[in-house]
């Protein structure tokens, strides 16, 4: 029909534009996740440092019964790694629960199908990086405990 222009949609071009728009959002969410991880690591350092001041006597008693400074450093590094691991596991469980709870509503309301998938190699790598960073972040208070003298922790405060 010559009176009306013919319109066509090229699926490849339309999908390419869609994925480029989604890719920008995905990169933004990845950057926000990185900032959250950085703030969490700073919080871990602050909490362990605050607890270190309260646990001075406990660490001094450990040193008095034969634990070396490196042992105390290793204990605090392990504590940071365990706290980071617990946070990562709780976060993964919360995300899985959110996917499970929101999937039926999103499917019925918007036609978006959510399903749980096993973590990819990249996600395992990110998890390992976060755990390693948590252990490294706890070395800051561990170094402080390493430098504390035995007599300082055992002497009574006036």
Please explain how this structure is put together.
It is a single chain. With 158 residues, the protein is mainly alpha-helical. Helices cover 80% and strands 0% of the residues. Helix 1 runs antiparallel to helix 3. The protein is elongated, with a radius of gyration of 26 Å. The mean pLDDT is 84.
Order of helices and strands: HHHHHH
Distance, first to last CA: 98 Å
Main sheet: strands, sense, barrel: none
Radius of gyration equals 26 Å
Principal-axes geometry comes out as elongated
Instruction: Return the average pLDDT rounded to an integer.
Output: 84
The protein's oligomeric status is: single chain
* Proportion of helical residues: over 70%
- Are there runs of 5+ residues with pLDDT below 50, and where? none
Strands, total number: 0
Helix-strand makeup class: mainly alpha
Strand content: under 5%
Helical stretch tally: 6
Summarize it.
The chain has 158 residues and is mostly helical. Helices cover 80% and strands 0% of the residues. The protein is built from six helices and no strands.
What key attributes describe this structure?
158 residues; mainly alpha; 80% helix; 0% strand
Topology (SSEs and partners):
Layout lengths: L10 H44 L1 H9 L4 H42 L10 H17 L1 H9 L2 H5 L4
Helix pairs in contact: 1-3, 1-4, 1-5, 3-4, 3-5
């Amino acid at each position: 029909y010559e009176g009306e222009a013919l319109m066509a949609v090229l699926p490849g071009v339309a999908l390419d534009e869609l994925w480029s728009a989604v890719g920008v959002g995905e990169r933004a969410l990845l950057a926000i996740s990185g900032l959250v991880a950085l703030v969490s690591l700073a919080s871990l350092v602050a909490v362990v440092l605050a607890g270190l001041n309260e646990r001075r006597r406990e660490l001094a008693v450990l040193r008095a019964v034969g634990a070396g400074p490196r042992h105390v450093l290793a204990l605090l590094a392990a504590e940071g790694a365990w706290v980071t691991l617990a946070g990562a596991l709780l976060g993964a469980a919360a995300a899985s629960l959110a996917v499970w709870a929101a999937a039926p509503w999103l499917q019925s309301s918007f036609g978006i199908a959510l399903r749980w998938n096993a973590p990819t190699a990249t996600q395992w790598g990110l998890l390992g990086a976060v755990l390693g960073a948590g252990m490294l972040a706890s070395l800051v208070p561990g170094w402080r405990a390493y430098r504390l003298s035995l007599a300082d922790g055992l002497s009574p405060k006036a």
